[in-house]
Design goal:
The complex is a heterotrimer.
Chain A (H helix, E strand, L loop, with lengths): L9 E2 L11 E5 L2 E2 L1 H5 L6 H9 L3 H11 L3 H7 L3 H5 L11 H11 L18 E5 L3 H12 L3 E5 L8 H4 L8 H12 L4 E3 L8 H4 L6 E4 L5 E2 L11 E2 H10 L8 E5 L3 H13 L2 E5 L11 H9 L3 E3 L2 E9 L2 E15 L2 E16 L1 E4 L3 E2 L18 E4 L3 E4 L10 H19 L9 H11 L9 H4 L8 E4 L37 H10 L11 H4 L6 E4 L2 E4 L9 H5 L5 E5 L3
Parallel strand pairs in A: 3-20, 4-5, 4-7, 5-6, 7-19, 9-16, 10-11, 10-16, 11-12
Antiparallel strand pairs in A: 2-23, 8-17, 13-14, 14-15, 18-19, 21-22
Helix pairs in contact in A: 2-3, 2-17, 3-6, 4-6, 6-17, 7-14, 11-12, 14-15
Chain B lengths: L11 H5 L16 H13 L3 E5 L3 H5 L5 E2 L5 E3 L5 H14 L6 E6 L1 H6 L2 H9 L5 E6 L35 H6 L5 E6 L3 H13 L5 E6 L3 H4 L6 H10 L6 E4 L3 E4 L7 H5 L10 H22 L2
Helix pairs in contact in B: 2-8, 4-6
Chain C lengths: L1 E5 H11 L4 E4 L6 H13 L5 E4 L3 H13 L4 E6 H16 L5 E6 L13 H4 L7 E4 L3 H18 L3 E6 L7 E5 L3 H7 L16 E2 L5 H33 L6 E4 L6 E5 L3 H14 L4 E6 L1 E3 L3 H8 L4 E6 L9 H10 L7 E6 L9 H13 L8 E2 L5
The chains are: A alpha/beta, B alpha/beta, C alpha/beta.
Chain lengths: 569, 301, 384
Amino acid sequence: MEIMVSRSSITTTGNNTGAWRFVRPVYERHTAPCSAACPAGEDIPRIEALVSEKKFKEAGEVILMENPFPSVCGRVCFHPCETACNRAGFDDAVAVNSLERFVGDLLDTSDGSLPFEAKEKNGKRIAIIGAGPGGLSAAYFLSRLGYSCEVFESEEKPGGLLRWGIPAYRLPEQVLDREIKRIESLGVKINCSTRLDSSFIETANESFDGVFVGTGLGSPIMMNIPGEELGIGWEVFLKEVKKGTQKEFKGKAVVIGGGNAAVDVARTLVRLGASVTIAYRRRIEDMPAFGSEIEIAISEGVEILELVAPVAIVQNAEQLSIELQSMKVEGQDGQRAKVVNDGDKKKSIVADRVYSAIGADVEDEWKGAKTVSRPGNRSALYNEKIPVIYGGDLVNADKSVTSAIGSGKEAAIMFDILLAEGGSKAGDEEAVKKTTAACQVGDGQSLSFEAYIGGERRNVVEGVVKFEDINLNYFEKTALKDKNSMKADLNGFDEVESGIDEVSAIYEAVRCFNCGICTDCGICSLFCPELSVLTGNEGRRIELEYCKGCGICVCECPRAAMSLVKEAE
Amino acid sequence: MQQTAIPKKVKYDSEYGSTDLLNPGHVGCPGCGAVLAMKFALHALGPDTMLVIPACCWAVIAGPHPQTSLNIPVLHTAFETAGAAASGLRAALDMKGDTKTTVVAWAGDGGTFDIGFQALSGAAERNEDFIYVCYDNEAYMNTGNQRSSSTPYRTRTTTTPGSGKVQRKKNIVEALAAHRIPYAATASISHPEDLIRKFKKAKDMKGGTRFIHIFATCPTGWRCPSEMSVEVARLAVKTNFFPLYEVEKGVKYIINAEGELPVEEYLMTQGRFKHLGDTEIQRVQAMVDDDFAFLKKKTLL
Amino acid sequence: MKKVIEGSHGVSEAVRLANVKVMSAYPITPQTHIVEALSEYCEEGLMDAKFINVESEHSAMAAVIGASSGGVRTFTATSSHGLALMHELLHWASGARLPIVMAEVNRALGPGWNIWMDQTDSLAQRDTGWIQLYCEDGQEVLDTTLMAFRLAETVNLPVMVVLDAFFLSHTFEVIDVPDQETVNEFLPEFKPSVCLDQDNPFAMGQMAPPPFYMEMRHNIQQAMMSVHDAYEKIEDEFDNIFGNRYGKLDAMLCEDADVVLVMAGTAASTARTVVSALRKKGVKAGLVKIRMFRPFPVAEMREALKNARMVAVVDRNCSFGVGGIFAQEIRAALSGTESRQKVAGFITGLGGRDVTPEILEEIYEAAQKMEDAPDEAIWVGLNN
C-alpha cells in the first residue's frame, strides 16, 4: 500500500510571491557629488571603481569620455570634486585629483587609438579662436560629433594658459604635448602663430558653420598706482621663463597679488635663484591661490607679507622701493576678510624687481560676449549669421582650466544642437536648454558628453547622492596617505609632485564610496531573503517573480545605487 | 610613504550569501530575518546537512506539503522536541555509518527558551553531536506575537500589552554555556561574515553540542519597516542590546563586537518599544550596560 | 535456549535479537528492567546499538521518531505517566508512519501515586494510531515483541507491546530465547519505506493543509485495517519458524458457552483456571483473551462470542462516565451482528489489586444470573 505522509516532492519555486509586492526595488544611477562638482562633469565614481579593480585603461577611457586632459587636470585642477566628496564627512576626501593624474599618465594613445569612434564627418566646419583648454576641448568634442575643426592660435605653440601661464614644475610641457597630440589625432587642425581679431566673426560664415571664441584673458589688470610701469606683468614673466629667455635672477623680488598667478610667479622666481616676498592686501587665509600651493611656496622659502596694499613703486638707485599701505580686517566679505586702510600706517620694502600679479581681464575686442543659453551659463552664445559661442575664461566665473574644458564641451554640444540637420534653428534657446538639461551632471554646471550621445549616463536619475544616503556600515575608516610626494629640488623646473604609485592609487580608489553607481558589490543579493537578486551580463537585476518588495536591498545598498518605486496599481 | 595594505574588495554575495540550498517562493514575511539566518547558515554548512525543525515560523517557511523551500533533508517535529529528535537522528546516522552529515536543529525562541528547553538541556547535557540553532525573533511570532521568555524587558506583545513585558529576557547562551558544551555563540543577520565564521567553526567542532543563537529581526512582529530588517539587527549589536560573542567549553568567553551607541537608537526603530518613556529607556540602558559589563568580566575568567 | 527470566527481560531479549539500532528511554517503574538490560547489552557489546538516555519520555519518543526518520530500527519502553507524557508524540509517530516498537508496562496513573497494574494508561492511547498487542506471559512477550517489528515495518505503523506491571514485568518464568540466526530468518534487516535521504533530499512531517490532510488520515485508517491480514501472515511465518502462535484473540471453550469471560493480560491465566474449574462443575463457561486491541479484531470477536448468552468483560481500567474500555469496544463490535450478545461490564483489579480466582468466580456467577446486561459497569472487589 502506498504510504501517504506529508513530505515534499516539489520546491516552492512555483509560488509567485512577487504578487505580494507593492513596491519594487530598481537599480538607478544617481549622480555623485564629486561629478556634480567637477567642471568637466567626469564620471568620477565609475573611474574610481575601475581603478579599484586595477582596470586603469578602462578608467582612463571613462575620463576621456568627458575630458581630453586627464594628465593636465590631474596636475592643475583645483579639484572641487574633493571638496564635495562624501567621504570627507567620514574620514577624508578621496584623492580624486591624484588618481586622475595616475590614470591619465598611464593612458597611452600615442598610436592614435582612441577608445571611441568619431562620428562620420558631417561636412560642417567650426572655427576655434584660441588653442587654450577651452578651444582645444571644443575641438575635441566637436570632432567626436563629426565636425571639422580649425583652431587659430596667436602663439607659436598650442595650449594657451596651460603652456604659458603654468610653470613647468607644476605641468611639464611633454605632458601637455601628449594630450594635445591626442586631440590632433582626431583630425583637428591647429594653426599656430595666427592671430585673429574680432572682425573675423563678421566674415566667418563664408567658410565656417560656427565659431568658438576661447581667447582667454589677454589683458592684465592694472594696479593703477604711480610707478606701475616699473613693475613686470606676471604673464610676460612666466612666458619668458617658458620660452627660455629668463634663466636666472639672483636678486630680491616682490610679487604683488594673492592668486595662483602670484604664487606661480613667486615659486618660479625661487627657481631662478631669487629671494621672494609676496605682498597681499588681505590675510594668507584669504588668498585665492590653492592652499596647497601657498604651503609649498612657503616651504620653498617664499615670504608672505599680509595686509599690505601697494600705493607706489619708486626707483631707488639701482633698486625699487615699494610703498605699502597697511590694512586691517573689518568684517567679512563673503568667504574673505573685508579690509580697510589701517589709518596712515605705511611700510616700504626694497627689491630689485617688482611683479604685478593681481589678475587678468578680457581684451576689449572680445568683450562682446552676450550671456544667454542655459542655467549654469558658462558658454555664451553670440548669435548672428552663424552660431558664435564664447567659452573658457571669457565667460567662466571661476577662470579655471577645468571649467574651460567644461565650457568647450558645452559649446560643442550647443553647436551640435543648433546645427542639427532638420533640428532647431540657430538661436533656438529653448532647444538648447531642453537638451542640455537632460545632459546636466546632477545639479552641477557641467554637461555629460556621454549622456548627450546616449550612453549609460543618460539613465542617471535626478538628484545628487548626499552623505546621509551612504550606508557607512560597509566602509571602514582608513589610514590616510600622502596623496603626492614632493621632490624638494628648487634648482630647476622638474615636476615637484611625483604622483602616486599603483598601490596608493588602488588604495585610494578602494576608499571611494562610488556614490550612486552599482559596483556589483553584491550587498543587495547578500541580504535578499527571496534570492531574487540575480547577476547577469547586464549587471544586477531583480527577479520579480519572487521579490516581495521588502526593500532591504535598497536600504542596505552601500552607495545609493538603488531605489524603491511604487508598483503600478 | 607608509605602505598600508589595500582594503580587500569583497563580492559580498558570493563570499557570504550564496547557497542553492534555499529556494525562492517561500512564504516568509517580507524582510524576514529568519530567512536570512537560514540563507547564511546554509552558505556555511553546505549540502551535507540535515535539518530538524520544530514548530516555529520556519515550520511554515520550509513549505507546506508537497513543497519544500530547502534542498536538503528536513525533519519536521513537534514543538518541544528539536533537541531530542536531533539526538535520535544523529544516532541513526551514526549507526548507519554516516558521519559526514551535520545534523542541525533549527528552532525559534519559543521552541528553545521555553517549550523546547528541557529537550535542549537534555541533549546539551549528553553533549549530543549536533548544532542547535535558535533563530530568535523574541516572541511567538508564528502565532501572532505572544511573549516568550526571550522577549526583552518592556516589549509590547499581544500578551504583554500596555507597558510591556515586566521580566527581562532569559540569557539562553549563559544557560547553554552552563552545560559546558564545546561551543555556544551569538550571531546576527546583520553580520553575515561573523555568522558564517561561527557556523563553520561549529561545523568543524564535530563531536558535541554546539549552540548558535541568531538574532533575527521580525519586521511584522516588531513593527518596523521591512527594509530596516538588517539595520535593526545591526543596531542591536551596535548598542550592545544583542552582543556578539562566543563561549568555548562553557568557560572561555570571547566578545566579537563592542557597541557604542545608546540603546535608544535601537529601541526607537521599532513599534514594539515606541511606548517607552525616558525613564524606561534609561532603565533598559542600565540593564544593557550591566549585562555587557558582566559579559566583559566573563572574558577575564 | 530456555532461560528463567523476567517478563521485562523477555522484551529486552527480543529487542536485542531484533537488531535494534537506536533506543531511547526514560526510567519509570515498572519499565526500568527492560531498559536497564538493554543498556547493559549495549555496554557489553551484545548489541550494536545506541541507547539515548533522555531526560523525559517525551524526549524518548521524540528521539526514536528522529532515529526512525533517519532510517533505522528503533525501540522505546515506558509506562503510565511516561506514556501519558508521550501522548502528543504517539500521534506524531503514527502520522509520520514510523515503525517504532514500544513496550508499555500497564501501570496506574496518579494521584495518588500508584506503580501497580492498571490498563487505563495504554487504553487511553487507543486513538493515537498505534497498534496495541496485549500479552499474558513471558514467552508471549518475547514472541510478540519480535512479531511487532515485522508488523510495524510491514504496515508502517508503530506498535505498542503491552504487559502487566509486576505480574508480568517482574515475574520470572521459563522463556525460550531463540538464537540470532533463526530470528534473522524471521526478521530481516530493516528497510525503511520513508526516511531522510541525503541523495534525494526532501522534507518530511511538514504542514499538511486541508487539501491533503484528510487523505493522509484515511491512509492511516487503511493501513490499520490492513494489519489484520498482515498480522495473520506474519504469525503464520512465526509459527513455522518458532512453533508458537497467539492469534488476535484467544478463544477457549466458547462454542457452547453460556457466559464467556473476556479480558486481557495476566488475568487471563487466572481466568483459564477458573473456567476449567467451572467446566468441571458442568458450568458452560468460556474465555476470550484479547491480544490485539488496535486494530480491534471485530470479526474474530464476533465469531468467538456468537454463541454466548452473556459476555462478561473484565476491565482493569475505567473510562469514567462510561465504564470499562474493553466492554465498550466489544459492545460496539457486537452491535452490528444479528444476535447482538449481551455484554456485561465488570471493573476490577485497578491499581495493582489482585484479580483472584474468587473475584473471577464472583463475576462469572453474577453474569450467569443476569437476564439482561446492566447499562453500568459493576465494580467488583471494592472495600466496604
